[in-house]
């Protein structure tokens, strides 16, 4: 439940229904990327400019649809009325006759606040700054290792459409669906925070499994060696996307702000995976780089789990 001074956003989903709804939202996001095939378009090459533009349209439309679907299961009510009638969340099975209607729910700010959308500038700034600070600690090792490569050289030849996809549309759409929508539904439907933080990144990681289809269709996959290579590549991607998804879910659960995970996602995409060139340990610099990795990671984890949600609720 999320509330402001006047109203309360009451989710009337059982845990099972919430889990089913979240799975459907995740599956249909991926399906929207391939729906263009029904019109005869080529959809397998994710780096084709036409495919990229089609997917922009798909994810934007789906991002607009998701809150409309969720609003069907949310009722904006007067919390005093609920307490006076003795109604508690666990007993709500049907829409309350005293609540606002579906359109009113969509127009209510408390509903959007339950999805992490806030008009409070101070809250937004604080959440984003915390996200940036944590991310810089997470990538402290790679930045010490070679900050010029990380910040300048690795993306200097990246096509504009790829930049928009990787640093703007992709992070915004995925965080909106998997954190703001899916994680919010789980957090407000009877699941504890730990379970919600686990389920959201699992769905996020699995949603990248469709990349196997792209890689399979663009190489000579008939050879067993290539199939094994593709599988390991996708498995690696599922692993690091799930890990990131867990971090983003924690950030969202603690800040309840939509901008914080989006900024973190965009920064992670920009930084890319660490190169770990120091693992050779051939010079003193390699040991220093290793120490920077360890320091950054442990500092990041310590501060991440030390975040107190109450510091954001009072902003």
In short:
With about 325 residues, the protein is mainly α. The chain has helices at about 15-35, 50-70, 80-85, 100-105, 110-115, 120-140, 140-150, 160-185, 195-205, 210-220, 225-255, 260-270, 285-305, 310-315, and strands spanning about 1-5, 10, 75.
Molecular structure report:
This is intramembrane prenyl-peptidase Rce1. It comes from Reticulomyxa filosa. Its main location: endoplasmic reticulum. Residues 160-271 form the CAAX prenyl protease 2/Lysostaphin resistance protein A-like domain. The chain has 315 residues and is mainly alpha-helical. Helices cover 68% and strands 3% of the residues. The chain has 14 helices and 3 strands. The chain has a 3-stranded antiparallel β-sheet. The longest helix is centred in the C-terminal third of the chain and has 32 residues, at 224-255.
Radius of gyration: 21 Å
Helix content: 55-70%
In whole angstroms, the N-to-C terminal distance is: 19 Å
The unreliable regions are 88-99
Largest sheet: 3 strands, antiparallel
Q: Quote the average pLDDT.
A: 86
What structural class do you assign from the helix and strand content?
mainly alpha
Query: What is the domain tally?
Result: 1
Strand order, largest beta sheet: 1-2-3
> Using DSSP, what is the number of strands?
3
Strand content: under 5%
Number of helices: 14
Order of helices and strands: EEHHEHHHHHHHHHHHH
Rough shape?
globular
């Amino acid at each position: 439940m999320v509330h402001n001074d006047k109203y309360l956003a009451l989710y009337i989903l059982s845990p099972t229904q919430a889990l089913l709804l979240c799975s459907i939202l995740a599956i249909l996001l991926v399906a929207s990327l391939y729906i263009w095939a029904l019109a005869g378009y080529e959809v397998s090459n994710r780096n084709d400019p036409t495919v990229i533009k089609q997917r922009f349209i798909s994810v934007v439309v789906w991002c607009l649809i998701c809150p409309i679907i969720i609003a069907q299961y949310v009722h904006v009510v007067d919390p005093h009325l609920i307490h006076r009638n003795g109604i508690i969340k666990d007993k709500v099975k049907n829409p309350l006759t005293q609540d606002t209607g579906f359109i009113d729910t969509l127009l209510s700010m408390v509903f959007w606040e339950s999805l992490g959308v806030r008009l409070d500038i101070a809250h937004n700034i604080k959440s984003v700054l915390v996200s940036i600070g944590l991310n810089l600690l997470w990538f402290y090792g790679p930045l010490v290792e070679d900050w010029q490569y990380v910040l300048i050289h690795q993306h200097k030849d990246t096509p504009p459409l790829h930049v928009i996809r990787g640093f703007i549309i992709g992070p915004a759409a995925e965080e909106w669906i998997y954190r703001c929508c899916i994680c919010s539904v789980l957090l407000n439907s009877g699941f504890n925070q730990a379970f919600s933080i686990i389920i959201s990144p699992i769905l996020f990681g699995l949603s990248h499994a469709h990349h196997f289809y792209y890689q399979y269709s663009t190489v000579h996959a008939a050879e067993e060696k290539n199939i094994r290579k593709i599988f390991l590549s996708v498995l690696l991607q599922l692993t690091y996307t799930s890990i990131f998804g867990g971090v983003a879910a924690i950030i969202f659960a603690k800040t309840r702000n939509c901008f914080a995970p989006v900024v973190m996602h965009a920064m992670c995409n920009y930084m890319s995976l660490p190169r770990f060139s120091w693992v050779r340990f051939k010079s003193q610099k390699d040991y220093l780089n290793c120490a920077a990795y360890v320091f950054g990671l442990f500092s990041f984890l310590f501060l991440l789990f030390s975040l107190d949600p109450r510091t954001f609720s009072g902003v």
